[in-house]
Design a protein that fits this description.
The chain is mainly α. It is about 45% helix and about 0% strand. The protein starts with 10 loop residues before the first helix and ends in a 28-residue tail after the last helix.
């Protein structure tokens, strides 16, 4: 266990299962901390990108995780498709 709880967050909590499961089962990346450590290596980055819908989506994920830790990150140049878990507690219809 690390000193920062964010690093210990399981990927299944924050990523869509179709992204989190290959990261865990194929690449043995189980937590946000494991993800960021693997992302720092060029070979790890390339392997991670293959688990996402696009390389930009993987980059956005890495930048978001880094921002949670207070690290600076450049903004994405254009919108990125959703990679995160949907909030199941949010109401389906907001009455708008």
């Amino acid at each position: 266990m690390s000193g920062n709880r964010i690093l210990d967050l399981p990927l299944t909590v924050v990523l869509r299962s179709e992204i989190a499961l290959p990261l865990q089962q194929v690449l043995h990346i189980y937590t946000v901390g494991n993800f960021l450590a693997a992302w720092r290596r060029p070979a790890g980055r390339q392997s991670i990108e293959h688990c996402f819908d696009s390389p930009q989506q993987a980059l956005h994920t890495a930048q978001t995780f880094a921002a949670w830790l207070g690290l600076p990150a450049a903004p994405a140049p254009r919108p990125v498709e959703a990679w995160w878990q949907a909030d199941k507690s949010a109401p389906a219809n907001l009455g708008v």
